[in-house]
Amino acid sequence: MKIGVYGGTFNPPHLGHMAAARAAAEALGLDKLILVPAAAPPHKELPDGTPEPERRLELVRLAADNLGLPGGAETSELELRREGKSFTSDTLRQLREEYPQAELWLLMGTDMFLTVQHWHEPEVILKLAGICAFGRTERDGEAVFAPQREFLQKTYGAKIFTLTLPNPVDISSTRLRELLARGEGREYLAPAVYGHILMNGLYGAHADLKRLDIPELRACSYSMVRAKRIPHIRGTEEEAMRLARRWGADERLAQRAGILHDCTKYLELPDQLALCRKYGVELDELEQRAVKLLHSKTGACIARHIFGEPDEVYNAIFWHTTGKGDMTLLEKILYMADYIEPCRNFDGVEQLRAMAYTDLDRAMLMGVEATVEDMTRRGSPIHVNTLQAQAWFREKTKL
Ligand code: DGI
Ligand code: FE
Ligand code: FE
Question: Does the C-beta of 292 come closer than 6 Å to ligand 1?
Answer without folding.
Answer: yes
